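Exercise: predict the fold of this chain.
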Amino acid sequence: MADKKDAKKNENKEQEGKKKGFNFKIVLIGVPLFVLQLVIVYFVTANFLVKPALSAHAEQVKEHGADGEEADAEAEAEEEEDSGESFIYPIEDLIINPAHTNGKRLLLLSVGFEVKSEEAKKKLEEKEVIVKDMIISTLSKKTLHELNNPQEKDSLKIELSEQIKKLMPKTKIKNVYFSKYVLN
């Protein structure tokens, strides 16, 4: 009887020892699985949630409140038109004084406008002075914070594209590129 009690006590102590000891299986299997889950969540978030949301937001901003179905139809029509070659109209080394800097800070900017035809590029070249004035006027209204914020650069591109549309409604800007963007 005593032997059975001693055997049960020893068995209980062994089980408690196993419970209290560090389990390396958790580290060897659990940590890599956790890292794998993090990678999968990042991939899904970056590719399937964030990119579509950003592109949808950019399209809404471009369309200025167009209905969803109309915007989709227009986007499909634009994609069909955009299949051809494109031309870039560059404007080099504009110096801009940002708002509220009293001329103490400057923005050095080179920008390129991508258009779908050489004819549209020639129209931009003909109105170069007007286009430069529009760029300077638009960006000189921006504060240093707005110009220095990386997320604002995309909205600046959209705003410049919209300003060109106002100046020349028949000229279609496919994209705007900043080849030089230096704040001093």
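Check your answer against the key: Helices lie at 2-20, 24-63, 68-81, 118-126, 128-140, 144-148, 150-167.
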